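re: ur question from earlier - yeah i can do the single chain one, its not a big deal. heres the input i used so u can compare w yours
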Amino acid sequence: MARTRCTDRVVGAILASWRYDISGISPEMRRDYESHFVECVHCSARQKFHRSLDGTLAVLTSLAALFFLFALAVLKHIKPLEHVAFKILGLDIYDMYHMLFSAGFAGLCFSVIALALVLLATPAPSYLGGIAMESAKQIEARLPAAIKSLRPR
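and the output i got, formated as tokens:
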């Protein structure tokens, strides 16, 4: 990406300021920018980089929320923590449980807020949806005609 240069500096500067996201513009303008992406290796590579970064952020924040949810579920069923808290740390079991539960709940809230911010600030939902649609079309193309006829249109 660093070694190549944009073929049209004006269009490249506009796309860079939009973080190479053309999903929210009119179809007439989108055609021009899509043709620029076909022509310009630099801008198409930057767009792929930004979309993979957006997708990675969405996946990581959703995984963080799931892990905190899992930690809260595990917290309900782990008895060895009571031994560690009572014998080694000298904590009361009730205090230890509330401390860990509060930390898990705070982490869950923070990761859900981060996920919402990522999904609002990036075009990740439309990008990931586009990938899912392409995969579904590829799978549908490989289906036998008998199964395709059963699918409602």
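The mean pLDDT is 81. not sure if urs matches, ping me
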